[in-house]
Specification:
The chain is of the alpha+beta class. The protein is built from four helices and eight strands, in the order αββααββββαββ.
Length: 179
C-alpha cells in the first residue's frame, strides 16, 4: 500500500491494510508521508462485522502501543482479522463481505460512581487488581450501565460480587460509509 491520500478515513486505511495483508501475508508499508492526524498516538479498536452487524472480529489497545495512529490501526486491523481467539481467521474472499469500523479512544478517566457513566456516550474499563476489562460505547443491545459493567467484568474474569474501579472514555468512531 502506498497511498498518501489526504484525510484518509481510518476505516478505509484499515481495509487497505487488510487487503494487502490477506493478499501476501505481510504488513504493508503505510502511507508516507502520513496525513498529519495520523501522527498522534492513541488507543484504537478495530471491529469487523458481517452484514447485519454480526461481530466477526474486534481487537484493540486502550493505550497507544505503537509509534503513531496509523501503525496502531494497521496492527489492530490485522489482529482483529486473524488473531481474535473467538473467530477463525478472515479469508481474503470474506473481506469484501465485512464492514470495518475504527474507534479512536479519548483519554481514560477514573470515575467515582456508576452515575457518571452512560453506555451511549462513554466506553468503560473496569479494573480489579491486575485484571481489567473494556467495553466500547454505543454498542447495540447494551443500553444500561449495570449491563455495561457486567459485560466488562466478565471479559476481565472478575466475579459478579467483586469490587472494581471504574473508568470511562469517549471514542471517535469511523466507519467505511464515511469514505
Amino acid at each position: 500500500m502506498t497511498t498518501s491520500e489526504p484525510g484518509l478515513n481510518p476505516a478505509v486505511l484499515a481495509r487497505q491494510v487488510l487487503e494487502c495483508y490477506l493478499e501476501n501475508g505481510n504488513m504493508p508499508q503505510l502511507p508516507d508521508p502520513l496525513p498529519p492526524e495520523y501522527g498522534m498516538r492513541s488507543g484504537v479498536f478495530v471491529s469487523l462485522k458481517k452484514r447485519g452487524g454480526v461481530l466477526r472480529g474486534c481487537i484493540g489497545t486502550f493505550e497507544p502501543a505503537r509509534n503513531n495512529l496509523a501503525e496502531e490501526i494497521a496492527v489492530n486491523a490485522v489482529s482483529a482479522a486473524v488473531r481474535d481467539p473467538r473467530f477463525p481467521p478472515v479469508s481474503k474472499a470474506e473481506l469484501s463481505e465485512l464492514n470495518i469500523s475504527v474507534d479512536i479512544l479519548g483519554p481514560i478517566e477514573k470515575v467515582n460512581s456508576k452515575d457518571e457513566l452512560d453506555p451511549g456516550k462513554y466506553g468503560i474499563m473496569v479494573r480489579s487488581g491486575s485484571r481489567s476489562g473494556l467495553l466500547l460505547p454505543d454498542l447495540e443491545g447494551v443500553d444500561r450501565v449495570d449491563q455495561q459493567i457486567d459485560i466488562s467484568k466478565r471479559k476481565a474474569g472478575i466475579g459478579p460480587g467483586e469490587k472494581v474501579e471504574l473508568f470511562r472514555f469517549k471514542v471517535t468512531r469511523y466507519g467505511e460509509e464515511e469514505r
